[in-house]
Design goal:
With about 220 residues, the chain is of the alpha/beta class. It is built from nine helices and eight strands. The protein binds pyridoxal-5'-phosphate.
Length: about 220
């Protein structure tokens, strides 16, 4: 069991460690946003993290988000799960940013959802940089998807998201993150969403502006 005080301590520790890493690699203090990934975590834990200062949460499942969000105080909400086109309307309504646009059908469905919700939805293009990851746009298809996104009036493509290869080899992770960062720069993206509990340091060194951290904040799922 994780207690509220443990979550507050984890948040403070992560915040300090992120700032220390930014300093070490010569980046601007405060230039990384921490998104607390709260999938499969009880509402009580998420409330504890928000009370301790967490400003952003990430969820993977629409159904779960729909039951949890009404029980939370105001917080910025990120959708980081796979986009099913039949859920796009709800995703556009519930979330402030969507990280996982990886194919044309998802972009088109989300654009329609955002139009119905009456908003311009910031999105990230999810790139597949890993042989162990099922989802994400293959790098060779990124330009076509970016072009299609550019023409969606209710979406604003702000940058790139990627998930590292499942490996303990830090060099492989770093190379994959550098690849994603180059693609983001080519697209003139300003938001780079790289890094989870086990690889956020490599992500910050690669230039990530947004880390998605679950286990290291809330405990094991
Ligand atoms: C679950 C998840 C995370 C958080 O993973 P941890 O290893 O628990 O930090 C981050 N990003 C995505 C896309 C996820 O699905």
């Amino acid at each position: 069991m994780t207690s509220s005080t443990a979550i507050a301590a984890n948040l403070q520790h992560l915040h300090d460690a992120i700032e220390a890493e930014l300093l070490r690699c010569g980046r601007t203090p405060g230039s990384v946003r921490l998104v607390g990934v709260s999938k499969k975590q009880p509402v009580e834990y998420i409330r504890a993290a928000i009370a301790a200062g967490l400003s952003d949460i990430g969820e993977n499942y629409v159904q779960e988000a729909m039951t949890k969000f009404p029980q939370l105080p105001p917080v910025r909400k990120h959708f980081i799960g796979h986009i099913q086109t039949n859920k796009a309307k709800q995703i556009a309504q519930l979330f402030d940013m969507v990280h996982s646009v990886d194919r044309a059908e998802a972009a088109l469905a989300l654009n329609k959802g955002a139009e119905l919700a009456g908003k311009i939805l910031p999105v990230l293009l999810q790139i597949n940089i890993s042989p162990t990851e099922r989802f994400g746009c293959p790098p060779e298809h990124v330009d076509a998807l970016a072009e299609l996104l550019h023409h969606q009036q209710h979406l604003q493509c702000a940058g790139v998201m990627a998930i590292a290869p499942l490996t303990t080899d830090r060099t492989t992770i770093t190379h994959a993150f550098d690849h994603a960062a180059r693609i983001c720069a080519d697209l003139h993206g300003t938001v780079l969403s790289l890094g989870m509990s086990n690889d956020w340091r490599e992500a910050i060194r690669a230039g990530s502006t947004l880390v998605r951290i679950g286990t290291a904040l809330f405990g094991a799922r």
